[in-house]
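Q: Convert this sequence to structure tokens.
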Amino acid sequence: MDTDPGCWLPDGWQQREIVELVSIESRFRFRRISDTIYEIRPPDDETSKDIPHLSRLLPSNRAWLWSWNPFGAPLRRWSEHHDLS
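A:
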């Protein structure tokens, strides 16, 4: 799975998936493949000890991220146009 926050939009249809992904971190093991790519492994795989820190994908932990706008409008901080409450 790719843990790059830019691949997981914090609103829309991916929001529910992000919460589910964060919840699996305690139930599985992970093996780091590249900077942001982790292989999900069975919980009994003692050779996979990498920690992907999936909680950083949660919208509440991403207020510092800049919004990506494919239409060329100026970028704004994500927190400037999303309600964090």
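The chain is about 15% helix and 10% strand.
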